[in-house]
Amino acid sequence: MSEESPASGRACGIGEAVAALLEEFPDVSVSKLRYLEAEGLLAPQRTARGSRRYSPQDIDRKSTRLNSSHEWISRMPSS
Question: How buried is 45 (Cβ within 10 angstroms: 0-12 exposed, 13-18 middle, 19+ buried)?
């Protein structure tokens, strides 16, 4: 299954979600999005196999949440 770009209006995987957010939030990473999900701050849809799928609206919500907590996110260790 190929991943779609958030700009295409279709759901995308976690790597595409990170790529869509990197310009505005250079410290964001896959591990940071997974951490925010574990903390209940993000809730992507899941495929039957458990892969995360982010809609364009999810990307917009992440951008808003990351913007409000950018300083905190940038201090999180990268893995």
Answer: exposed
